[in-house]
Amino acid sequence: MSSDENHPPTREPSHKRGGTSSNPLVLHGRHFGRTVFALCNYPALLTSGILRLEELQDSSVEDYPADVRREHRVFMELVDSYPGLLERLTNGEEEDIILVGELLGKGASGAQGDDTKTLKSAVLEWLVPRGQVVTPPLSRNIKSDRGFNHEVTGALLCPAGLDWSNAETKQSLKSGEIAVCGDQWPMFLYAGNIYDPEDPWKGLLRSEILIFGFKHVFTSPSSVDKEPKATRSGNAYLHGMKSVTKGSLAYIATQVRFSLSSSSVFSRTDTVTDSDNFYHSILDLLEDPDENEEVTELMMWWTRRVFPNSSSSQRGISKNSALSKIREKRAILQERATAGAT
Q1: What are phi and psi of 88, to 5 degrees?
Q2: Nearest residue to 290 (alpha-carbon basis) of 201, 191, 207, 190
Q3: Which of 8, 35, 163, 191 can pair with 203 through a Cys bridge, CB separation 3.0 to 4.6 Å?
Q4: How far apart are CA 289 and CA 316, in angstroms?
Q5: Helical pair 246-260 and 24-35, crossing angle rounded to 10 deg
Q6: Contact, 260 vs 188, CB < 8 A?
Q7: pTM confidence score
Q8: What is the pLDDT along the chain (342 residues), one digit of tens a residue?
Q9: What is the rounded CA–CA span in Å between residue 210 and residue 225?
């Protein structure tokens, strides 16, 4: 099972500088990688972040390119999420900064490896409706017959906008004649595996298989077929997670996509699965200010599905309440201000 509760930290021989799998930084790295930012070089992230803090005394982060701004946001979120970390980094030697990064990276990569391993077999239970069987059957341990080599996984991985039922398209995907880049999102991201080219937001990132994958990793594998509830031993409960994050959604989408593929080893540099590009393209959309309205609604939808008892998942404001009147008045004032400026 993928959850940390099912992988109790085992004591490894001590690193000459004190790093073990039960080190708090390793454990923090596991959760941070799953929920905020997974695919990065943590020692480099910390080293660049500390140097940038010095530079920002005389400049603004808005002066930097978009990728650097994101990196700095991740860095600040990381140091803010671990008490005393920023002080340790700013007062420590370069070797200590690298060690901290290595421990965080060890946690993030360890969690990713655990989830990749357990989802490989778990995903087979989610390919067809309960009671039906996948034909021909798929191996739990060998992935070579997945991806575009199988009718079911091929249909799920087929890029939105292409027709998997077209024999020529199917053969071109299977042979590799059509190379699929990470930003060509697969059909399984859409609810009911239905893509509307006229409304590409419709159903995006709301599929059942994504919900199953999320529950498997965050609320425990046993919760997949039950009412949404963060079990006391699940990763979400252990880390006080009460809402779905953009990073966690991108992470699960990447993990499920890889589990459906025929690739056997998860690698950021694998140009066939192009997982790094896929992960970042999902994050790019979720963090795009221009998509804020759709993203806010999407994240609320997810939190209601997975953490229904969380305060952040509570439904809309009561009609005719004082708060609703305040919001309505504010909206009218903003609309008038916008109209007056044009």
Answers
A1: -65, -40
A2: 201
A3: 191
A4: 22
A5: 80
A6: yes
A7: 0.82
A8: 344 444 433 333 334 444 456 899 999 999 999 999 998 999 999 999 999 999 998 889 999 998 899 999 999 999 999 999 999 999 989 999 999 999 999 999 999 999 999 999 999 999 998 889 999 999 999 999 999 999 999 999 999 999 999 999 999 999 999 999 999 999 999 999 999 999 999 999 999 999 999 999 998 787 776 654 444 445 655 557 889 999 999 999 999 999 999 999 988 778 789 999 999 999 999 999 999 999 999 999 999 999 887 655 445 566 678 887 787 888 888 777 777 665
A9: 13
Phi, psi angles (nearest 5°) of residue 333: -65, -40
Question: Which pair of tokens denotes residue 136?
Answer: 């021909």
